[in-house]
Design brief:
Elements: E1 2-7, H1 10-19, E2 27-32, E3 42-43, H2 51-60, E4 65-68, H3 71-76, H4 78-84, E5 89-90, H5 98-101, H6 103-113, E6 120-123, H7 126-136, E7 140-144, E8 153-156, H8 159-171, E9 182-186, E10 191-199, E11 204-206, E12 211-212, E13 215-217, E14 221-224, E15 229-232, H9 239-259, E16 266-275, E17 278-285, H10 292-296, H11 305-313, E18 327-334, H12 351-355, E19 360-364, E20 367-370, E21 373-376, E22 380-388, H13 391-402, H14 418-423
Parallel strand pairs: 1-2, 1-4, 2-3, 4-5
Antiparallel strand pairs: 6-9, 7-8, 7-9, 10-11, 10-16, 12-15, 13-14, 15-18, 16-17, 18-22, 19-22, 20-21
Helix pairs in contact: 7-8
Bound molecules: adenosine monophosphate and glycine.
Residues 212, 226-227, 285, 289-290, 292 line the site of glycine (GLY).
Amino acid sequence: MKVLLVGGGGREHALAWKLAQSPRLTRLYAAPGNPGIAAHADCVPVRDTDLDELVALARRERVELAVIGPEVPLSLGLRDRLSDAGVPVFGPSQSAARLESSKAFAKDLMALYGIPTARFRVFQDADAAKRFCRELGAPLVIKADGLAAGKGAMVCATLPEADAAIRLCLDEDAFGAAGRTVVVEEFMTGEEASFFVITDGASALPLPAAQDHKAIFDDDRGPNTGGMGAYTPAPVMDEAMTGRVMEEIVTPTLAAMAKEGAPYAGVLFVGLMIGPDGPRVVEFNCRFGDPECQAILPRLDEDILPVFEAVASGRGLPASLRWRREASVCVVLASPGYPGTPRAGLPIEGVEAAAALPGVNVFHAGTALRDGALLTAGGRVLGVQTLGGDIRAAIERAYDAVGRIRFEGMQFRHDIGRRALARS
Ligand code: AMP
Ligand code: GLY
Protein backbone atom coordinates (compact mmCIF):
# COMPACT_ATOMS: atom_id res chain seq x y z
CA MET A 1 0.00 0.00 0.00
CA LYS A 2 1.24 3.49 -0.92
CA VAL A 3 0.88 5.95 1.94
CA LEU A 4 1.27 9.73 2.11
CA LEU A 5 2.14 11.18 5.51
CA VAL A 6 1.50 14.92 5.84
CA GLY A 7 3.68 16.92 8.25
CA GLY A 8 7.32 17.21 9.23
CA GLY A 9 7.72 17.31 13.01
CA GLY A 10 8.63 14.86 15.77
CA ARG A 11 5.13 13.42 15.81
CA GLU A 12 5.34 12.67 12.09
CA HIS A 13 8.79 11.08 12.50
CA ALA A 14 7.29 8.68 15.06
CA LEU A 15 4.37 7.96 12.70
CA ALA A 16 6.78 7.35 9.78
CA TRP A 17 8.94 5.07 11.93
CA LYS A 18 5.88 3.03 12.92
CA LEU A 19 4.34 2.91 9.43
CA ALA A 20 7.69 1.82 7.95
CA GLN A 21 7.50 -1.38 10.03
CA SER A 22 4.28 -2.46 8.32
CA PRO A 23 4.63 -5.45 6.00
CA ARG A 24 1.72 -3.98 4.01
CA LEU A 25 3.57 -0.75 3.20
CA THR A 26 5.00 -0.61 -0.33
CA ARG A 27 5.95 3.06 -0.41
CA LEU A 28 5.83 5.95 2.02
CA TYR A 29 5.83 9.61 0.95
CA ALA A 30 6.15 12.45 3.44
CA ALA A 31 5.26 16.08 2.74
CA PRO A 32 7.40 17.87 3.68
CA GLY A 33 9.03 15.35 6.06
CA ASN A 34 12.41 16.08 7.70
CA PRO A 35 15.92 14.55 7.77
CA GLY A 36 14.82 11.89 10.29
CA ILE A 37 11.70 10.97 8.35
CA ALA A 38 13.87 10.63 5.22
CA ALA A 39 15.22 7.34 6.65
CA HIS A 40 11.73 5.85 6.21
CA ALA A 41 10.04 7.85 3.46
CA ASP A 42 10.50 9.76 0.21
CA CYS A 43 10.31 13.35 1.40
CA VAL A 44 8.58 15.66 -1.08
CA PRO A 45 9.12 19.41 -0.63
CA VAL A 46 5.44 20.38 -0.37
CA ARG A 47 4.29 22.45 2.61
CA ASP A 48 1.61 20.85 4.79
CA THR A 49 -0.66 23.86 4.14
CA ASP A 50 -0.42 23.70 0.32
CA LEU A 51 -3.67 21.81 -0.21
CA ASP A 52 -3.61 21.97 -4.02
CA GLU A 53 -0.11 20.51 -4.23
CA LEU A 54 -0.87 17.82 -1.65
CA VAL A 55 -3.93 16.67 -3.59
CA ALA A 56 -1.92 16.73 -6.83
CA LEU A 57 0.85 14.67 -5.19
CA ALA A 58 -1.61 12.08 -3.87
CA ARG A 59 -3.21 11.74 -7.31
CA ARG A 60 0.04 11.63 -9.24
CA GLU A 61 1.54 8.93 -7.01
CA ARG A 62 -1.76 7.01 -6.72
CA VAL A 63 -1.63 7.16 -2.95
CA GLU A 64 -3.95 4.63 -1.30
CA LEU A 65 -4.00 6.17 2.18
CA ALA A 66 -3.17 9.64 3.52
CA VAL A 67 -2.30 10.19 7.19
CA ILE A 68 -2.49 13.84 8.29
CA GLY A 69 -0.36 14.70 11.33
CA PRO A 70 -0.80 18.42 12.19
CA GLU A 71 -3.91 20.43 13.03
CA VAL A 72 -3.45 23.26 10.52
CA PRO A 73 -4.02 21.22 7.32
CA LEU A 74 -6.93 19.45 9.03
CA SER A 75 -8.52 22.78 9.96
CA LEU A 76 -8.01 23.99 6.37
CA GLY A 77 -10.01 21.00 5.07
CA LEU A 78 -7.26 18.75 3.67
CA ARG A 79 -9.24 15.65 4.62
CA ASP A 80 -12.23 16.87 2.63
CA ARG A 81 -10.13 17.81 -0.42
CA LEU A 82 -8.36 14.42 -0.49
CA SER A 83 -11.63 12.52 0.03
CA ASP A 84 -13.19 14.43 -2.89
CA ALA A 85 -10.21 13.27 -4.96
CA GLY A 86 -10.93 9.65 -3.98
CA VAL A 87 -8.03 9.26 -1.51
CA PRO A 88 -8.89 7.48 1.77
CA VAL A 89 -7.71 9.62 4.70
CA PHE A 90 -6.90 9.05 8.36
CA GLY A 91 -7.85 12.39 9.94
CA PRO A 92 -11.07 14.31 10.62
CA SER A 93 -12.99 16.58 8.25
CA GLN A 94 -12.72 20.36 8.50
CA SER A 95 -16.08 20.46 10.19
CA ALA A 96 -15.08 17.82 12.78
CA ALA A 97 -11.67 19.48 13.32
CA ARG A 98 -13.55 22.47 14.79
CA LEU A 99 -13.22 20.59 18.09
CA GLU A 100 -9.67 22.00 18.04
CA SER A 101 -9.83 24.95 15.62
CA SER A 102 -12.61 26.70 17.55
CA LYS A 103 -12.51 26.53 21.33
CA ALA A 104 -15.90 28.30 21.38
CA PHE A 105 -17.38 25.52 19.22
CA ALA A 106 -15.89 22.84 21.50
CA LYS A 107 -17.09 24.55 24.70
CA ASP A 108 -20.60 25.18 23.35
CA LEU A 109 -20.84 21.53 22.27
CA MET A 110 -19.77 20.34 25.73
CA ALA A 111 -22.28 22.65 27.41
CA LEU A 112 -25.10 21.52 25.11
CA TYR A 113 -24.43 17.80 25.63
CA GLY A 114 -23.48 17.84 29.31
CA ILE A 115 -19.83 16.87 28.83
CA PRO A 116 -17.82 17.87 31.92
CA THR A 117 -15.56 20.91 31.44
CA ALA A 118 -14.70 24.21 33.15
CA ARG A 119 -17.49 26.79 33.53
CA PHE A 120 -17.12 29.38 30.74
CA ARG A 121 -18.58 32.00 28.43
CA VAL A 122 -17.65 33.18 24.94
CA PHE A 123 -17.08 36.90 24.15
CA GLN A 124 -16.25 39.30 21.35
CA ASP A 125 -16.74 42.36 23.53
CA ALA A 126 -13.93 43.22 25.97
CA ASP A 127 -16.09 44.97 28.59
CA ALA A 128 -18.53 42.08 28.77
CA ALA A 129 -15.61 39.62 29.04
CA LYS A 130 -14.09 41.64 31.92
CA ARG A 131 -17.44 41.73 33.73
CA PHE A 132 -17.66 37.91 33.51
CA CYS A 133 -14.13 37.66 34.94
CA ARG A 134 -15.39 39.49 38.04
CA GLU A 135 -18.26 37.05 38.31
CA LEU A 136 -15.88 34.04 38.11
CA GLY A 137 -13.08 35.51 40.24
CA ALA A 138 -9.35 34.78 39.81
CA PRO A 139 -7.52 32.59 39.02
CA LEU A 140 -9.08 32.12 35.62
CA VAL A 141 -8.13 31.26 32.06
CA ILE A 142 -8.50 33.39 28.91
CA LYS A 143 -8.30 31.54 25.60
CA ALA A 144 -8.13 32.75 22.02
CA ASP A 145 -10.87 30.93 20.10
CA GLY A 146 -8.77 29.82 17.12
CA LEU A 147 -5.47 28.05 16.49
CA ALA A 148 -2.54 29.85 18.13
CA ALA A 149 0.29 27.25 18.03
CA GLY A 150 -0.20 26.36 21.70
CA LYS A 151 0.11 29.97 22.87
CA GLY A 152 -3.57 30.92 22.97
CA ALA A 153 -4.39 29.79 26.53
CA MET A 154 -3.44 32.28 29.25
CA VAL A 155 -3.72 31.24 32.87
CA CYS A 156 -4.29 34.45 34.87
CA ALA A 157 -3.64 34.55 38.62
CA THR A 158 -5.30 37.96 39.10
CA LEU A 159 -8.08 40.06 37.54
CA PRO A 160 -5.62 42.69 36.16
CA GLU A 161 -3.75 39.85 34.41
CA ALA A 162 -7.04 38.61 32.95
CA ASP A 163 -7.88 42.14 31.76
CA ALA A 164 -4.48 42.33 30.06
CA ALA A 165 -5.04 38.96 28.34
CA ILE A 166 -8.45 40.11 27.10
CA ARG A 167 -6.91 43.34 25.77
CA LEU A 168 -4.18 41.31 24.04
CA CYS A 169 -6.81 39.30 22.14
CA LEU A 170 -9.64 41.76 21.55
CA ASP A 171 -7.98 45.20 21.46
CA GLU A 172 -4.39 44.52 20.38
CA ASP A 173 -5.19 41.70 17.96
CA ALA A 174 -2.14 39.70 19.15
CA PHE A 175 -3.57 36.45 17.73
CA GLY A 176 -5.20 37.98 14.64
CA ALA A 177 -8.56 36.47 13.68
CA ALA A 178 -7.93 33.53 16.05
CA GLY A 179 -8.21 35.89 19.04
CA ARG A 180 -11.16 38.06 18.04
CA THR A 181 -13.39 35.69 19.96
CA VAL A 182 -12.27 34.66 23.45
CA VAL A 183 -13.35 32.00 25.91
CA VAL A 184 -13.22 33.04 29.56
CA GLU A 185 -13.19 30.04 31.84
CA GLU A 186 -12.85 28.86 35.39
CA PHE A 187 -9.41 27.62 36.50
CA MET A 188 -9.53 23.91 37.24
CA THR A 189 -7.28 22.17 39.75
CA GLY A 190 -6.10 18.57 39.54
CA GLU A 191 -3.69 16.48 37.53
CA GLU A 192 -3.51 16.80 33.75
CA ALA A 193 -3.39 13.84 31.38
CA SER A 194 -3.28 13.46 27.60
CA PHE A 195 -5.75 10.81 26.50
CA PHE A 196 -6.18 9.59 22.92
CA VAL A 197 -8.74 7.48 21.13
CA ILE A 198 -8.68 6.22 17.56
CA THR A 199 -12.23 6.39 16.27
CA ASP A 200 -14.24 5.81 13.12
CA GLY A 201 -17.00 8.00 14.53
CA ALA A 202 -19.00 5.10 15.94
CA SER A 203 -16.63 3.11 18.12
CA ALA A 204 -13.40 4.23 19.80
CA LEU A 205 -10.18 2.46 20.78
CA PRO A 206 -8.39 4.00 23.76
CA LEU A 207 -4.60 4.43 23.67
CA PRO A 208 -2.53 4.28 26.86
CA ALA A 209 -2.63 7.74 28.42
CA ALA A 210 0.43 10.00 28.62
CA GLN A 211 1.50 13.08 30.51
CA ASP A 212 3.16 16.06 28.89
CA HIS A 213 5.47 18.70 30.42
CA LYS A 214 4.46 22.05 28.93
CA ALA A 215 6.69 24.53 30.78
CA ILE A 216 10.20 25.13 29.44
CA PHE A 217 12.05 24.74 32.77
CA ASP A 218 12.25 22.02 35.44
CA ASP A 219 9.53 21.94 38.11
CA ASP A 220 7.04 23.42 35.63
CA ARG A 221 8.61 26.87 35.73
CA GLY A 222 8.82 29.35 32.87
CA PRO A 223 6.65 29.95 29.82
CA ASN A 224 4.66 27.20 28.13
CA THR A 225 6.00 25.37 25.09
CA GLY A 226 4.49 22.86 22.68
CA GLY A 227 5.68 20.17 25.12
CA MET A 228 9.17 19.40 26.51
CA GLY A 229 8.70 15.69 27.14
CA ALA A 230 6.16 12.98 27.78
CA TYR A 231 5.82 9.63 29.47
CA THR A 232 3.33 6.79 29.38
CA PRO A 233 1.55 5.14 31.13
CA ALA A 234 0.10 7.97 33.24
CA PRO A 235 -0.56 6.54 36.71
CA VAL A 236 -3.57 8.85 37.22
CA MET A 237 -5.34 7.15 34.28
CA ASP A 238 -5.91 3.71 35.77
CA GLU A 239 -8.48 1.32 34.33
CA ALA A 240 -11.37 2.77 36.32
CA MET A 241 -10.56 6.37 35.31
CA THR A 242 -10.14 5.33 31.68
CA GLY A 243 -13.59 3.71 31.82
CA ARG A 244 -15.10 6.89 33.26
CA VAL A 245 -13.48 9.07 30.60
CA MET A 246 -14.76 6.80 27.83
CA GLU A 247 -18.28 6.81 29.27
CA GLU A 248 -18.58 10.41 30.48
CA ILE A 249 -16.56 12.20 27.79
CA VAL A 250 -15.55 10.21 24.68
CA THR A 251 -18.80 8.39 23.90
CA PRO A 252 -21.05 11.45 24.39
CA THR A 253 -18.66 13.68 22.39
CA LEU A 254 -18.64 11.31 19.41
CA ALA A 255 -22.44 11.01 19.60
CA ALA A 256 -22.76 14.80 19.79
CA MET A 257 -20.52 15.32 16.75
CA ALA A 258 -22.57 12.81 14.74
CA LYS A 259 -25.79 14.52 15.81
CA GLU A 260 -24.39 17.93 14.79
CA GLY A 261 -23.68 16.55 11.31
CA ALA A 262 -19.90 16.50 11.84
CA PRO A 263 -19.05 12.84 12.57
CA TYR A 264 -15.50 12.58 13.93
CA ALA A 265 -13.06 10.03 12.47
CA GLY A 266 -9.34 9.95 13.17
CA VAL A 267 -7.50 10.34 16.45
CA LEU A 268 -9.16 12.45 19.11
CA PHE A 269 -6.87 14.00 21.74
CA VAL A 270 -8.69 14.70 24.98
CA GLY A 271 -6.72 17.01 27.27
CA LEU A 272 -8.00 16.11 30.74
CA MET A 273 -7.94 17.58 34.21
CA ILE A 274 -8.47 14.86 36.81
CA GLY A 275 -9.82 16.70 39.84
CA PRO A 276 -11.67 15.86 43.04
CA ASP A 277 -14.98 15.58 41.12
CA GLY A 278 -13.56 13.36 38.41
CA PRO A 279 -12.34 14.01 34.87
CA ARG A 280 -13.09 17.25 33.01
CA VAL A 281 -12.04 18.38 29.54
CA VAL A 282 -9.34 21.07 29.30
CA GLU A 283 -9.34 20.98 25.51
CA PHE A 284 -9.85 18.75 22.50
CA ASN A 285 -7.28 18.39 19.72
CA CYS A 286 -7.94 16.73 16.37
CA ARG A 287 -4.54 14.97 16.10
CA PHE A 288 -1.90 13.06 18.04
CA GLY A 289 -0.05 15.04 20.71
CA ASP A 290 3.54 16.06 20.17
CA PRO A 291 5.61 14.70 22.02
CA GLU A 292 3.00 12.29 23.43
CA CYS A 293 2.88 10.41 20.11
CA GLN A 294 6.65 9.77 20.23
CA ALA A 295 6.25 8.21 23.70
CA ILE A 296 3.10 6.19 22.97
CA LEU A 297 3.65 4.65 19.50
CA PRO A 298 6.73 2.58 20.48
CA ARG A 299 4.47 0.76 22.96
CA LEU A 300 2.06 -0.38 20.22
CA ASP A 301 2.73 -4.08 19.73
CA GLU A 302 1.07 -4.45 16.34
CA ASP A 303 0.91 -2.94 12.88
CA ILE A 304 -0.70 0.52 12.83
CA LEU A 305 -1.39 0.61 9.10
CA PRO A 306 -4.50 -1.65 9.17
CA VAL A 307 -5.91 0.49 12.01
CA PHE A 308 -5.52 3.74 10.03
CA GLU A 309 -6.88 1.98 6.97
CA ALA A 310 -9.95 0.72 8.83
CA VAL A 311 -10.78 4.29 9.93
CA ALA A 312 -10.06 5.79 6.50
CA SER A 313 -12.17 3.26 4.61
CA GLY A 314 -15.00 3.16 7.16
CA ARG A 315 -14.49 -0.57 7.77
CA GLY A 316 -14.96 -1.45 11.43
CA LEU A 317 -12.19 -0.98 13.98
CA PRO A 318 -10.57 -4.00 15.66
CA ALA A 319 -11.95 -4.82 19.11
CA SER A 320 -8.73 -3.79 20.84
CA LEU A 321 -5.05 -3.02 20.30
CA ARG A 322 -2.09 -4.86 21.82
CA TRP A 323 0.30 -2.73 23.91
CA ARG A 324 3.71 -3.54 25.40
CA ARG A 325 3.74 -3.39 29.17
CA GLU A 326 6.92 -1.34 29.35
CA ALA A 327 6.91 2.34 30.27
CA SER A 328 8.07 4.87 27.70
CA VAL A 329 9.72 8.27 28.06
CA CYS A 330 10.46 10.95 25.46
CA VAL A 331 12.75 13.89 26.33
CA VAL A 332 12.66 16.89 23.98
CA LEU A 333 15.87 18.76 23.12
CA ALA A 334 15.12 22.38 22.20
CA SER A 335 17.03 25.25 20.62
CA PRO A 336 18.37 28.23 22.54
CA GLY A 337 15.71 30.95 22.51
CA TYR A 338 12.76 28.53 22.49
CA PRO A 339 9.81 29.06 23.18
CA GLY A 340 10.65 32.55 21.90
CA THR A 341 12.58 32.89 18.64
CA PRO A 342 14.83 29.81 18.34
CA ARG A 343 18.36 29.97 16.91
CA ALA A 344 18.71 27.92 13.75
CA GLY A 345 21.73 26.54 11.92
CA LEU A 346 23.62 25.20 14.96
CA PRO A 347 25.54 21.95 14.30
CA ILE A 348 24.17 18.90 16.16
CA GLU A 349 26.51 16.14 17.32
CA GLY A 350 26.00 12.69 18.76
CA VAL A 351 22.65 11.67 17.26
CA GLU A 352 24.10 8.47 15.78
CA ALA A 353 25.79 7.54 19.07
CA ALA A 354 22.53 8.07 20.98
CA ALA A 355 20.43 6.17 18.44
CA ALA A 356 22.91 3.26 18.52
CA LEU A 357 22.06 2.55 22.18
CA PRO A 358 19.71 -0.44 22.40
CA GLY A 359 16.04 0.53 22.37
CA VAL A 360 16.65 4.25 21.82
CA ASN A 361 14.83 6.25 19.15
CA VAL A 362 15.93 9.77 18.28
CA PHE A 363 12.98 11.43 16.56
CA HIS A 364 13.73 14.54 14.50
CA ALA A 365 11.48 17.60 14.93
CA GLY A 366 13.31 20.77 13.86
CA THR A 367 16.44 19.64 12.02
CA ALA A 368 17.94 20.32 8.59
CA LEU A 369 20.77 18.74 6.58
CA ARG A 370 23.30 21.04 4.92
CA ASP A 371 26.31 19.53 3.09
CA GLY A 372 25.89 16.37 5.12
CA ALA A 373 25.85 18.22 8.46
CA LEU A 374 22.83 18.02 10.76
CA LEU A 375 21.72 21.47 12.00
CA THR A 376 19.04 22.89 14.27
CA ALA A 377 16.08 24.27 12.30
CA GLY A 378 13.27 24.92 14.75
CA GLY A 379 12.27 25.35 18.38
CA ARG A 380 11.96 21.70 19.32
CA VAL A 381 14.88 19.94 17.62
CA LEU A 382 14.89 16.26 18.68
CA GLY A 383 12.90 13.85 20.84
CA VAL A 384 14.87 11.09 22.58
CA GLN A 385 12.64 8.11 23.42
CA THR A 386 13.19 4.79 25.18
CA LEU A 387 11.19 1.98 26.74
CA GLY A 388 12.03 0.57 30.15
CA GLY A 389 10.78 -2.21 32.41
CA ASP A 390 9.35 0.52 34.60
CA ILE A 391 9.24 4.30 34.51
CA ARG A 392 12.52 4.61 36.44
CA ALA A 393 14.39 2.41 33.95
CA ALA A 394 12.90 4.29 31.00
CA ILE A 395 13.93 7.65 32.48
CA GLU A 396 17.50 6.45 33.13
CA ARG A 397 17.93 5.10 29.62
CA ALA A 398 16.45 8.22 28.02
CA TYR A 399 18.80 10.57 29.90
CA ASP A 400 21.77 8.31 29.18
CA ALA A 401 20.98 8.83 25.47
CA VAL A 402 20.34 12.56 25.90
CA GLY A 403 23.85 12.84 27.38
CA ARG A 404 25.37 11.75 24.05
CA ILE A 405 23.80 14.61 22.06
CA ARG A 406 25.17 18.14 21.93
CA PHE A 407 24.48 21.47 20.30
CA GLU A 408 25.19 25.01 21.43
CA GLY A 409 22.61 26.26 23.95
CA MET A 410 20.70 22.94 23.98
CA GLN A 411 17.75 23.15 26.37
CA PHE A 412 15.97 20.18 27.93
CA ARG A 413 14.13 19.37 31.12
CA HIS A 414 15.84 17.12 33.64
CA ASP A 415 12.61 16.00 35.32
CA ILE A 416 10.61 14.27 32.60
CA GLY A 417 8.61 11.49 34.24
CA ARG A 418 9.52 12.49 37.78
CA ARG A 419 5.86 12.97 38.69
CA ALA A 420 5.11 9.33 37.80
CA LEU A 421 8.18 8.26 39.74
CA ALA A 422 6.93 10.08 42.82
CA ARG A 423 3.67 8.16 42.58
CA SER A 424 5.16 4.69 42.11
P1 AMP B 1 -4.83 24.51 26.18
O1 AMP B 1 -4.12 25.25 25.07
O2 AMP B 1 -6.29 24.73 26.24
O3 AMP B 1 -4.40 23.06 26.26
O4 AMP B 1 -4.20 25.09 27.53
C1 AMP B 1 -2.82 25.03 27.78
C2 AMP B 1 -2.58 24.70 29.23
O5 AMP B 1 -3.19 25.70 30.05
C3 AMP B 1 -3.21 23.40 29.69
O6 AMP B 1 -2.40 22.30 29.42
C4 AMP B 1 -3.39 23.65 31.16
O7 AMP B 1 -2.17 23.45 31.85
C5 AMP B 1 -3.72 25.11 31.21
N1 AMP B 1 -5.19 25.30 31.25
C6 AMP B 1 -6.00 25.53 30.19
N2 AMP B 1 -7.28 25.66 30.61
C7 AMP B 1 -7.28 25.48 31.94
C8 AMP B 1 -8.30 25.52 32.95
N3 AMP B 1 -9.56 25.79 32.68
N4 AMP B 1 -7.91 25.31 34.24
C9 AMP B 1 -6.61 25.05 34.54
N5 AMP B 1 -5.62 25.04 33.64
C10 AMP B 1 -5.94 25.25 32.36
N1 GLY C 1 1.84 18.21 23.62
C1 GLY C 1 0.58 18.85 23.52
C2 GLY C 1 0.04 18.97 22.18
O1 GLY C 1 0.45 18.30 21.27
O2 GLY C 1 -0.88 19.77 22.00
